[in-house]
Amino acid sequence: MKPHFQMMAAYNRWANERLYSASGELSDDDYRADRGAFFGSIHRTLNHVLVGDRIWMHRFTGEGETYTELDIVPCDAFDTLLSARSAEDDRIIRWIDGLSDEQMAGTFSYRTISNPSDRTQPLSPALAHFFNHQTHHRGQVHALLSGLGIDPPSLDLIRYQREIDMSA
User: Fold this and answer.
1) Residue 143 falls within a domain, yes or no?
2) Span 54-86, pLDDT tens digits
3) Beta strands in 12-154, from DSSP E residues, in sequence order
4) Whole-angstrom distance, CA of residue 135 vs CA of residue 11
5) Is 168 a member of any domain?
6) I want to staple 145 with a disulfide (CB 3.0 to 4.6 A). Which of 17, 85, 95, 152 is the partner?
7) CATH number of domain containing 12
């Protein structure tokens, strides 16, 4: 199980680097314009992914920044967001790499945000959600880039697997 999540953490960083590279080519107006996505703009969607990651990492580890709202924008400047994203991706990889088999098979407890309640659940299914959530919102940004006439990079997991040669 752990090798799967290590791959997902590395894929997450790879996909974010590609998506941020494409997003960084936009004018500030295009980057910030409300395009009708769930969080409106590319800027707000990318911030939401960072917020979600920080919330979940705080739940998993008890450390780091966390938030009480899902639509907060902690990074107003693209460069600041890019730096925060890179640091969070590195943090995710280090944490996953440090998990023991016992931790992977264990549970964790946290308090939800939208409808506050206390939860305890197995870690592995929560990690599946964690990485799926990132993929979901990266897909929204990918579509927004396409709508702006940008040829967005492939973010397919199989492309990542082929680039790192998973057959080796």
Assistant:
1) yes
2) 999 999 999 999 898 899 999 999 999 999 999
3) 107-111, 118-122
4) 10
5) no
6) 152
7) 1.20.120.450
Question: Residue 167, class by beta-carbon neighbours within 10 Å (0-12 exposed, 13-18 middle, 19+ buried)?
Answer: exposed
For residue 128, give both structure tokens.
């599946």
Write the DSSP string, 29-64: HHHHS--SBTTBSHHHHHHHHHHHHHHHHHHHHS-S
90 bridge partner residues: none
**pTM recorded for the entire structure:** 0.94
Q: Say which residue the tokens 């590279």 belong to.
A: 21
Distance CA 60, CA 91 (A): 12
Q: Which amino acid is at 153?
A: P
* Burial per residue of 116-155, b for 16 or more beta-carbon CB atoms within 10 angstroms, e otherwise: eeeeeeebbebbeebbeebeebbebbbebbeebeeebeeb
H/E run at residue 155: none
